[in-house]
Amino acid sequence: MKFMLMMNVPCDTGDYQINRWTPEAFNAHIQFMKDLNRDLTKSGELVDGQGLTPPGQAKIVRYGKGGAPVVSDGPFAETKEFLAGYWIVDVEKPQRAYEIAARVSSAPGPDGQPLVIPIELREVMGAPLPSEG
């Protein structure tokens, strides 16, 4: 079973402004993420995981006239949270995905205490197979 774990963090509310953390707090947080990814790779459960650029660098793309992409700034005019990163894991049972999500949620914050970030967890659906014709 594949699951996507999504880490959404407050957008410029002061609750999660990692670029303003002390170097020690920042390094501890990054080390936590490296250790997590190492452990999930070692167990064979990590399919993919990436951090994402901040919302100010996001773009919205729509289908335009003649098929040309229409690109605008995004993601939203007003938002309280943004997707900071994700993991895709391949596990035997949903309970294991819950355990991994709880570990992600415990990433250390600026004071070294767990951030307790809510992690959205969704099962990845298989792509529809092309019909034989």
What does this structure look like?
This protein has 133 residues and is an alpha+beta fold. It has a single domain, classed as Dimeric alpha+beta barrel (Alpha-Beta Plaits, 2-Layer Sandwich), CATH 3.30.70. It is built from two helices and six strands; from the N terminus they run βαββββαβ. It has a four-stranded antiparallel sheet, with helices on one face. Strands 3-4 form a two-stranded antiparallel ribbon.
Mean pLDDT: 87
Order of helix and strand elements from N to C terminus = EHEEEEHE
Helix content: 10-25%
Query: How far apart lie the N and C ends?
Result: 29 Å
Strand arrangement, largest sheet?
2-5-1-6
Please give the number of β-strands.
6
Total domain modules: 1
Overview in brief:
The protein has helices at residues 23-42, 94-105, and strands spanning 2-10, 46-51, 59-63, 69-73, 81-90, 119-123. It has 133 residues and is of the alpha+beta class.
